[in-house]
Design brief:
Number of helices: 14
Number of domains: 2
Strand content: 15-25%
Structural class: alpha+beta
Amino acid sequence: MLFNYTIDGFENIQHQDYFSLEKITCKLMSLYRSYGYHQISTPTFETYDLYVHEDSIPSDDLFKLVNHQGKVLVLKPDATLPITRMAAMNHPHSDEIIKYSYQSNIYRNFSSPEMIKKEITQIGIEYFGNNSPECDGEVIALAILSLLENGIADVHIDLGHVGFTNYLFDELDLSETERETLFRYIENKNIGDIAAYLSGLDMAADKKDIILKLPTLYGQPKNVLKEMKTLCINTKMEWVVEQIAEIYHHLEVIGLAKYVIFDLGFTNQMNYYTDINFKGYISNCGEPVISGGRYNNLSEKFGIPRPACGFAIDLLKVIDYMEEENLLPQDDQTRTIIFYAADDKARAYQFAQKLRANHVMAEVFIIKSAWDDHLRSLQKNQLYKNAKIYFLSEGQFFAEKNGEFQPLDSLEIESEVN
């Protein structure tokens, strides 16, 4: 009897998907390395204290446990925070340039029924110590290239800036509750709800008109920039327009601007973002596969003031899409199987070693039953699809052909690896 010991929200990764995962990870790490990013890793467990004061991740969404010393730990719910800690510990000079890449699993005990996955496989980069539009442009460019270089052509980035709306709300002296409510309505682009809510606030009509236009700041960047300029009521909002225009210009210069759409109405669950934030989408996927942005204040939590920008890719979402579109790298390496009689063990293992030395996968099994039985057993096994199967008996190799086992010249077999 088979028992179901699986846990909702956690997935097994089968051999073909794992092969694809490793190939894609290797390709992306090579891409990031070519831009100067150093691969690092942080622990699976983190101290609960690291997250207890972070309101971006609700406490109920954390997997908690207590170690033998009575210290509360959590399964890592986010990659950026521990990487920022690592950068602060290992590079105490705030003006240092630090570029990290990583591949990690994160864990969220989502209470929402729509959020089923609780273990998320991420790959991404974090760029510390550079507060320029060129830094933001490089991070966004690498997010785009991460998909393009895996054969995914229908890519677009929704690029926003949390400062534009925040600087507007600062000018209006809104309460936290009022800000949160308006942010939610703006992100949902529900102009009717925004208008109804604003009708109950003591606010000048021209300011209400500006807020009502925020959800419409979506679309082609140059058109959105023109509209943004008309809505600025202070120098900080004007600065945002200048910054996001420079980032877009950088993407134009390097030939990737066509993948970017502006959306000044969306927010991000990780509310440590201070400036730009963005989400990456691919066709036929309703949810983003990439999430990123600038978080200039996070490093101060560890005593080192340092600007930073980065992104994370949900690798398994990308693999699901690539599988549907037949874009996954396939494990088509030649595999050779040798069944041997007991007296031919030494020759079988020697030959298998020669195959492996020439980068051919080779497996050896002792003959325990009729050759037909061994052959049928392997042919039914998906793991041995397209394998070359040989039998070695009394110093002679045999292979099945047209229902019969015919002797082969062993030298011909050996020539396959020469």
